[in-house]
Design brief:
Largest sheet: 6 strands, mixed
CATH architecture of the largest domain: 2-Layer Sandwich
Number of helices: 10
CATH class of the largest domain: Alpha Beta
Bound molecules: adenosine-5'-triphosphate, magnesium ion
CATH superfamily of the largest domain: ATPase, nucleotide binding domain
Strand order of the largest sheet: 12-8-3-4-5-18
Structural class: alpha/beta
Helix content: 25-40%
Order of helices and strands: EEEEEEEHEEHEEHEHEEEHHHEHEEHH
Length: 367
């Protein structure tokens, strides 16, 4: 992919880019992470630094950048707090902004022949003119029993979606060198968590449930591959709204009160408890959709991420309602921590950092 306005070669599947920050631009905040590789043979990573910088309301709408300057400012503030010199960054687009498609092509083609074939095939799947899209592809695997063919994944997005994110980074003085897709980045970070499961989670049906500010994303993985994806309009904004109504607060006050737990006892019984019950019901419902639209009949583990996963006691409620072992993710468990990191705060922030972590890991892609 070639982005003319910024003269940057951007690819969804780009390979190694030496020093790289992972930057997740989301509706409620910018999350930024710097990792380093301590021991390549053992794949030991160190978390050097991270920042979560609030995003003003409406700067991002439905995953699209609505106000470039404001988003650029938030990125710049996050970068300042990082105390890093690295200026190359990996970004991601929301899944809804990217069309992905697996196609089967003859094996052993020359790169330019393959590119030509991908463009021809892509024309059928992409509802825009090809000169309006960023198109990228990657051979994903050989097909068992068909040595003459390989599976190729195509990823395509409207150019302006890519350019907006690149431009916001540019305003912040940073250079986007990798463009990923949010749920692929979460999947990359999830590899760190899967290793913590018995037999690395082999043959287990694993549901990743990300509950953010406005959307709940369900992704189901089986042996490292996505078998199901679904978004539901539900998230922490609902809780903030409820706090505003009940306690007559502004949205900023409600947001702060939610995080520092400064509300009275009836907040727990009248607001938080019902919210958690609704959340567990949303998860149950999402799983039912998964069962009815696939051949799967059970899920072995649920992993919760996103800002709402931080709510104390949520694991227990979801476990009880779904009857599935539920755990809040922490991709940093087996990482070394630089002495700039406060472990207790990191434990609270970890579930919000999956996408940024997966993006930061792109710096260590095998080339
Ligand atoms: N400590 C906390 N306790 C309770 N809720 C929290 C806490 N920290 C963050 N949240 C809530 O989590 C939500 C933000 O989560 P996250 O950063 O995962 O969302 P997002 O990625 O910006 O949103 P989306 O994915 O919906 O676009 C907000 O509603 C915020 O109020
Ligand atoms: Mg999110």
């Amino acid at each position: 992919m070639f982005n003319k306005s910024f003269d940057i070669h951007l690819t969804f599947f780009s390979t190694k880019s030496p020093q790289l920050l992972g930057v997740d631009i989301s509706s409620s905040s910018v999350k930024m992470i710097e990792l380093s590789m301590v021991n390549k043979a053992e794949n030991t990573l160190r978390l050097e630094s991270y920042a979560i910088e609030p995003m003003p309301k409406e700067a991002i709408l439905d995953g699209n950048i609505n106000n470039l300057e404001v988003v650029g400012d938030s990125i710049r503030r996050a970068w300042k707090r990082m105390g890093t010199r690295v200026k190359n960054i990996a970004l991601a687009l929301p899944a809804a902004a990217v069309i992905t498609k697996i196609i089967v092509v003859p094996a052993g083609q020359r790169e330019d022949d393959l590119a030509f074939q991908v463009e021809t095939e892509a024309n059928q799947y992409i509802p825009f003119a090809l000169d309006e899209v960023n198109l990228d592809f990657q051979v994903v695997r050989a097909i068992p029993d068909h040595p003459d063919e390989v599976e190729v994944m195509i990823a395509a997005s409207r150019k302006e979606k890519v350019e907006d994110r690149v431009a916001a980074a540019f305003i912040a003085g940073l250079k986007a060198t990798v463009m990923d897709v949010e749920h692929f980045a979460a999947q990359t970070a999830f590899e760190l968590i899967e290793r913590q499961l018995p037999e690395g989670g082999k043959d287990q049906v694993i549901a990743l449930v990300d509950i953010g500010a406005s959307i709940t994303h369900l992704n189901v993985l089986y042996n490292g591959e996505f078998v199901y994806t679904r978004d539901q309009p539900f998230g922490g904004d609902q809780l903030t709204q409820e706090i505003q109504n009940q306690f007559n607060l502004t949205s900023e006050e409600a947001e702060a009160a939610k995080r520092n737990g400064s509300l009275s006892e009836n907040f727990h019984t009248e607001v938080l408890q019902p919210f958690c019950e609704t959340l567990a019901l949303e998860v149950t419902r999402a799983l039912q959709f998964f069962f009815t639209s696939t051949q799967y009949t059970q899920v072995n583990y649920i992993f919760l991420s996103g800002g709402c996963a931080v709510i104390p006691g949520l694991e227990e409620i979801v476990t009880e309602r779904t009857q599935v072992i539920t755990q809040v993710v922490n991709p940093f468990i087996n990482m070394e921590l630089s002495n700039r990191i406060a472990p207790r705060q990191l434990k609270i922030d970890a579930p919000l950092l999956m996408i940024a972590c997966g993006l930061a890991m792109r710096g260590f892609d095998p080339s």
